[in-house]
Structures are given as C-alpha cells and as structure tokens.
Amino acid sequence: MRRLTDALEEAADSETHGHPHSQHQITLRKELSSVLADAVRGTPLLLTVDDVHHADSASLGVLQEVVESWNGGGLILLLSQSLHGAPADPLFHVETLRSRIYSRFRLHPLSQEGIRRLLSTHLCESATEQLAAEYTYATGGNPLLLRSLIEDARNTEPAPAALAAGREYQQSVLACLRRCSPPVVEGAQAAAVLATSRRLRAATPLLLGYVFEDGPRTAEHPLNVLQEIGILDPEGRFRLNAARTAILSDLPPERYRELRVRALHAMHLRVGQNRRGEDLPNILGTGTSGTWTAALLLDAAETDLAQDEMSSALAHLQLAMDSCPDEASRCKTVAGIARTKWRIDPLTAAQHFDFLLEAAGKDALAVRETVTLMHQLAWHGQTAKIAELIEHFSTDGTPSQPPELHSACQLLLNTLPTLKPFLDRVAPALGEQQPGTTFISVRARAGGSLAQLLEGGPRDEAVTTAQQILRTSPLTDFTLEALECALLILISCGRFEAARSACDTLLDEATRREVPTWRALLAAYRAEIALREGDLAAAAQLARDALAVLPPTSWGAAIGAPLGVLVHSTTLLGDLDEAAAHLQYEVPEAMYRSRYCLGYLMARGQHHLATGDARLARADFEFCGALMKEWQLERPGFVAWRSAAAESLIRMGEPQQARDLLDEQLSLTEEDDQRVRGITLQLLARTRPASRPALLEEAVDLLRASGDTFSLSLAMQDLSDALRSLGDTRRARLLADRAHALGVQARDAGTPGTSSAEEVPAADDEDCPAGASPLTKSERRVAELAAQGLTNREISNRCFITISTVEQHLTNVYRKLNVKTRLALPDGLADQADTS
Predict the structure, then answer these.
(1) CATH number where 696 lies
(2) Whether residue 710 is found in the same domain as residue 805
(3) Final residue of a domain: which of 417, 450, 466?
C-alpha cells in the first residue's frame, strides 16, 4: 500500500500529469498496475473513485490502464458517476462500457419501506407509515438528505413527532448542489428566488426559462436534476422550505440582486400573458426600475383590487412609485393609490387630490382616472374643483368629449345639483355624447333615469331601468354610482321591497368582500329603506353600523345620509336625547351643496317638531323645499318636504296654509305613490274635519299597501279617534289596538315572526247580502283577519298564502259583501277573528 500511495502522490505532483500520453504518465500507469497486482496477492482489494465525471484526463488514463490490463481476480474497482454531469472524457466512458469485466448499476432512490426501516433503526423503533411517507416526500429518497434529516431530528430535544429540517439538512442540500453542474446550481438559485412569490411556488421550464438567458430548453435539464436529487418535487415546488432558505442564504448579494431583477422580468412576462397579479414585494427591493417594472406592479395592484386585497394593492402601488420611469406612469400610480385608499377610508384619499388635479390639468390622467377623481371630489362636496376639471375639458378644443365624461356629469348632477347651472353652460362645449362601453352605458342610463324621475318624469320606465341595472351590474368601483342611482329610483318610487332585496344583496357582498366604504354607503341606503318602511329600530341600527364602519370625518358631504336617518329614526323612537347628541356633530358646509343635506334637514326638522319647536321645524322643512325647487327636484317620493312643513303649520295653528301645501303635494304625486299619498291624506284630514273619516280610511288603505308600518300606525290611530268621536267605539277600539301593535312592531328591533295558521270553522253566511254568493272558507278567513286590521302581508304569513292570493280573496269578499274597503267589513267578521 505504501508503494501505491507513493505512486499516486508522484502522479499528482507531476508537472506533466495533464498530458496522458507523455512518457512519464505511461511509466506511472504501468507502475500503478504493478503495485495493484502485488497488493491483491495476499488479500482482496476494493478501490473506489467517487465523482469520476470530475476526473482529469491523466487520472482517467490511469483508471483505463487498470481496466484494460487487469486479468486476475482479487480487485474490485468501484467508480461512481452522476447521471446528469457530462463526463470529462467521453472516450473513457465508452471504452469502459466495452470492457468484458465491467458491470453498470444505477442507484435508485430509497423506497418508502426502505426509509421506514432506516427510521426504525436510527430514529425511533417503530416508525409509522405516515412518518415514512413524510420523510419520503421531504427527501425524494435521497440517502444524504434522509441521513441529515434524521440527524436534525436526533439533535432536537425532545425528538419531534414529525420531521424537522435544520442545519444538517441545509448543509446537505448545499452539498448536493456543489456536486452538480453550474446550470443546475443556477436553476436552484432561480427557483429559490421565484418561490418567494406566493403564487410562483412551482418552478416550470417556461418560468425558469425567463430567468435563464437561453430560454426554456436550457432550464428543462436543471429542473429535472433538481427533482431527481430530491430538492424539488414533481410539480417543481421545493419539498421543504428549508432547502429554499439554504440556497438563498448561500447566494452572494450581487448574485441575488441579479437573479431578483431577472425574476422580476420573468414575472412581468408572465403577468403580461396571464393578466394575473403576483406577490411582488418579497422579491423586490431597491435597484429595480423601468417601464415594465412599473407596468407589472400596476397590473398586480389592479388584480389585487379585483380580489379586494387592498393592503396588497397599496404595497404594489407604493413599490411602483419607486419604479416610475416617467410622469405618466407616476400619475397613473397616484390615481391607483387614491382609488385604493378611497375604498378603505375616503378621507385618506383626499391627500392626493391636489396632485391629481394638477395632473388632470396637464392632460396626464386617463379619462377613467379623471372620472374617478370627480366622484371622489363629489363625495367631499368639492364643487369648485370639479368645475375646474370640467372647464378644462370644455375649453380644450376637442369637438366631442369621451362618453365617460358625459356619464360622469350626469351622475354628478344627481349628487351635486348645485352644479346644474354650470353644467348647462358648458354642455355645448362638451359636444354630443358618443356611444360608450357597457359600463359607461350603465352609468349614463342610471344617472339619466334618476335625473328624469326626480324632475317629474315617468316612474315605470325608471323602475324598469333600475331593476335591470341592479340585476345585471356587478359591484365595482366603476358601477357603484350607477347602483346607487338604481336604489334611489326604487326608493323614490316607493318600491321598498325590491329596493330592500337588492340593497341586502349588495350589502352582503360588500361585507363579505370587506370593502369598508362600500359597506358603509350601502348600510346608509339600507337604513333609508328601513326608515321608509317604518322599521325604526332597524333604521337606527343600520345608520349606527354605517357610522361605525366609517367615522363621521370620513363621510365628507355624504355624512347627511347616515346621520339624517339616525336622527330621524331615534326621534320617532322617542329617544330625543340621542337624536340631539347626533345633531351636535358639526356637518361640513359642503353637505348643503349636495342632495345629502335634504334628508338631514328633514330629520332635524322632525327633531324640532318632537321637542315642541314648530317654528324651527318649519324653517328646516321650508329650507329643504327651497333647495329642491332650486334644484328642480319635483318628485315628492324623493323627499316629501311639503307634508312635513304642513304638519308644523298645523301645530302652529295655520290649517289653511297647511292645506294648500298638502293639496300641492297631492297634485305632484302619482296615483300609485301610495306612501306619499297616504301620509298626505292623513294630514289633510286634520285640516278638513267634515271629510276626516273618509280621508283617513283612504289613507289607511294606501299606507297599508305601501308597507310603511309606522305611518300606518299613526293613520290608524287618527282614524280610531275619528270613529270614536262618531260613536263607533267597536271599530275605534280595534283600530287603536292594531295601531298600538304596529307602533310596537316599528319600534322593536328585528323582524316580527309569523304566526302559525289556525284552523277556523266556517261560519254561516248571515253577513252576505241577499242574493250574493256565500263566502268560501278561505275568503272568510282572510276577511276575518282583514277586519281585525292585519295587513295583506301579515294575512299572507298567517295563512301561508301569497299576497296575490290575499288580494284576490279580498276582491271577492268586497264584491260579495258589497263594500269598498276593509273598514266597512261587517262587525261579525272581526268578532269571529277575536274569538278564533
């Protein structure tokens, strides 16, 4: 062995060892062969050479001499070679294969059963199949990685029940990579950098090809090697995060920065193909800039917004600010930041208004971004700045402005009616409206329908448009205003059930998607619907919810919406102290330039009326009316200020003036506007004593059909008083009881439950006029409940039939009994209902 060692050292030290055909090398090979022959005479010899694919030509020449010249026994030469590394001398590989004494074996990964046995021997006596499966996945059957994981587990106190990758494992990963070719190492490094994105955990040849300069073909081989040695799984993911951590920690800073930029470029190409945003902040740092960098980040932010991930969108946009190559890119980025912040809290978006206004003045904002800015300015009631923007467009010499601008102006009119004179003046300069995209068309139709309705236009057409918009339009930043208009149309037309259903759907979606501004705004609309349905407790709670999601300072001019409902509902609930406390909030002056002030003025007037100050109440109601006349909002269903002002006049002892206002309101109210007509007739009855019972009977029927529980309870109580003064004490008592029950229902939180159906024996037909058909059992049951004072909906719930069926039964009952209203139903029917 000493002769063999000396011969090997001499070969290694020889200055000419790199020339396999030199005389010196030939002599050395013969000497080694002689030494090996002598060594095996006394005992068998195993000679091993690892990583032969890394051997130099001279060393391979020695090994080849041994293979070719050896004819005796006693010597085993064991060579190990990587399947993935290119041999240094292909001729050696071929000649060895041709030798008659050469055998080739391929070592396969350890099986799961083999791993289980090793775990039982070295880690725990009875390793389970589950534990073996975990180690099999973690290592891919690589013995080196398996031994390192076992060592990490044994070094952990107490020993973990599952595998724990530590320092030994990470060192083994790096050791495996150092034995691989440079392209494989580069592939591992690229995969580690890409995997810092939560959506790019799986490396693919295409994705790695973006990082490799020579494309996907170059990346395919390294990816296969990394999968075979157990670092990546078949899907291209790191089997253990510790492997990725080890590779990243071993990267020099310069190399890491280089790969990070390449990875960013790869993701830019990927986003450009798939339109999918990625989790970029983890792979980005300083030193990345360029047009494609900013474009990638803006695309990622847009994707985040579509998925309602506002925090991630802001992170991407802030990074884009550091990467903007020009002013246009910077303006687009700031507009994106403002839009994202507006979703979270409109107050924080306001800090970007000055920059965006300046950019718009330089035509550096896209039209949609300018329209979005107008909407944000309208929220805060900044009419002067909106006028500046529109003035800029109207004087730029363009013969016809984009359709987005026309639809925006229409929507602005509905929010800020004070802009109407200005918009009328600049309208010719804006040109004719051109056809737009679907979303622009929806905005234009919604805004136009609401404007025409509030100016006294046809109701049915507006309702149809609103229902279609609510049914077909998704909830987005760009459709929100259109959806608001549609809800306002249904509310103003008294279609409370349809408005409630649509608003509940939108509010549920906004809550699920966790967009605070949408949620608060829709809660305010839902509170308005509840107020008009007479559900006072629900209205108050929904308004509180809206103000809890967004604090008052964040509402801008829109504060009038939730605050008005809260003051109004708490006043009607009798909680005057809470209402007074809310009135202490100093609303912004800009609110009085927006439609949001109308509901607030009505609520404040109601509070003055409830506290006994009819004069202040009248002032608020008439101020509200003056604004509506100035803004040409003639629809009483939008805000019925005349009936409120009339009530204050009645309290002040001015019945004639009150009657004039009420007659005017009736003339402006369409026949099917049941709520407004019912409220108007109830108050008109106070000014016309001779017609009081008849007017109140009609008011009760209208309010019952309208669904306004609270107003119905007031009208029923007034009718009860009128009937009692005429000596009809039985019906007066029934109405008073029913009015009290409805008042309690309006003031109680929650939705009243339905009662169980009751089987009532069919009564005789003594109430039917001679010659009339007798009432059926179902008709009599409906008539009994109607005579008791139940609404059609309550009868429907009690009897488990549709409202349409209730109406059909009542029509038959009225015809058979020859009466026109339920108040004229025979006494016996109500008495039977009481005893049933």
Answers:
(1) 1.25.40.10
(2) no
(3) 417
CATH of the domain at 795: 1.10.10.10
Residue 42 belongs to domain spanning: 2-98
Instruction: Indicate the residue among 389, 417, 445 that finishes a domain.
Output: 417
Supply 648's token pair. Answer: 């204050």
**Residues 233 and 332 grouped into a single domain:** no
**In a shared domain, residues 645 and 746:** yes
Could you tell me which of 572, 525, 516, 570 has the C-alpha nearest to residue 548?
Answer: 516
The mean pLDDT of 296-307, rounded to a whole number, is 81
**Burial classification of residue 719, based on how many CB atoms lie within 10 Å of its CB (0-12 exposed, 13-18 middle, 19 or more buried):** buried
Tell me the two tokens of residue 754.
Answer: 């339905």
Residue 498 placed within a domain: no
The vertex-20 CA angle with 18 and 22, nearest 5°, equals 100
d(CA 339, CA 477): 8
d(CA 50, CA 82): 9
The answer to whether residue 119 sits within a structural domain is yes
What is the total count of domains within the chain?
5
Tell me the C-alpha to C-alpha distance, in Å, between residue 771 and each of 27, 765, 774, 775, 828.
139, 11, 9, 12, 19
Find all residues with CB under 8 Å of 687, minimum gap 6, and list them: 646, 650, 655, 656, 658, 659, 662
Q: What is the pLDDT of residue 835?
A: 39
Cα–Cα dist 67/33, whole Å: 10
| Residue 544 within a domain | no
* Cβ atoms of 170 and 151 closer than 8 Å: no
| C-alpha closest to that of 567 among 541, 540, 546 | 540
Q: What is the dihedral of CA 172, 178, 182, 185, to 10 degrees?
A: 20
CB 659 within 8 A of CB 684: yes
In a domain? residue 471: no
pLDDT tens digits along 256-287 = 777 776 776 666 555 444 444 444 554 444 44
Task: Find out whether 376 and 408 touch, Cβ atoms under 8 Å.
Answer: no
Alpha helix (H) ranges present in 401-495? 403-415, 420-430, 438-454, 459-472, 480-492
- Confirm whether pTM is higher than 0.70: no
On whether both 84 and 157 belong to a single domain, the answer is no
Residues 609/617, Cβ–Cβ less than 8 Å? yes
pLDDT tens for each residue of 550-594: 999 999 999 999 999 999 999 999 999 999 999 999 999 999 999
